[in-house]
Amino acid sequence: MSVSRSAIKKEPVVRNTMELQPFVWVGTDKRGVKMKGETPAKNANLLRAELRRQGITPNVVKPKPKPLFGAAGSAISTKDIAFFSRQMAIMMKSGVPIVSSLEIIGTGHKNPRMRKMVESIRTDIEGGSSLYEAISKHPVQFDELYRNLVRAGEGAGVLETVLDTVANYKENIEALKGKIKKALFYPTMVIAVALIVSAVLLIFVVPQFEDVFKSFGADLPAFTQLIVAASRFMVAWWWLILFIVISAVLGFIFAYRRSPSMQHGMDRFILKVPVIGQIMHNSSIARFARTTAVTFKAGVPLVEALGIVAGATGNKIYEEAVLRMRDDVSVGYPVNMAMKQVNIFPHMVVQMTAIGEEAGALDTMLFKVAEYFEQEVNNAVDALSSLLEPMIMVFIGVVVGGMVVGMYLPIFKLASVVG
Fold this sequence. Notes:
This protein is mostly helical. The chain contains 15 helices and three strands.
């Protein structure tokens, strides 16, 4: 809720369990000072009555106009949820009641979808629901891990501490994801641009050279003939090639999302790719260790925690391994023994887990494991970027430069004959 002169006059608040809509209003207080603000209410008449009760004479009360474009707002991202968790933790630690915290966060958020969701959570809590019950109505934004951590925090009476832990967790995981995307995005985009440039040369530039070559009346070098043939094919069938490429990409994405066996196969393949595979290994271990440490520290039982953690590893191979670990732990195996049985975790991780279990500090050890492997990912991504830059330059030089050389070969040949 935004209001001018908020330090002079408290913003009127209309609470109603029924659906509210935002209104903007302009009025004057008892001293004749002009005030304005934005307040959710069921209708304008109720808002006017509430304003008068607060000592404000309303002059204008009307529904807040919707923006012409982007009225629905952007989708709620993981960063939005991380920021929400951080704000909640800070305000609750400062002694601000949970309902007031939600009201402040919801009103101050720029994304209408996020604002609407926070308002819904606040309304549910005012109606007697716990925070866990309120966020459970939004499973897309608050996954099973988040919900279980909040439930554990509420049960133990340390909700603000758990929310702070969740905020740290979300921020670390997002930073890790960002590093992985950076490692994969840069070379992919450069190669894509090189292929697009090559296609433009073949479709628009090479045909111009071909007309010039015909006037020579001499045989073209074999390499130039190959480029000319590729150009003719591209000019005649570019639409079919474009259709096949787009269909293949969309088909792959659709099949990957719908087929668990394909996801399993792709994740296994990625783990075996040189350099990239090691980054993905380290990333999955870091996410497993951090997520397990956070859930265990929050008081979630270990077997239940492993069930939640499995889906947070970001890789089907690790997900299946963690689920097997959960089954072993549920029948009495120590975590380090179950980890050793799946034969996918490095010896160092198994040993640190064993030490943590023996010392009764499993969460502390797993946090250290997570920090180590997150740093390994950072180092590997930086090294990969340094390694790929010269290789990408060579690729572009071979593809684009080779095409340019092929076009000028007949000219060089003609010049040597004339000379």
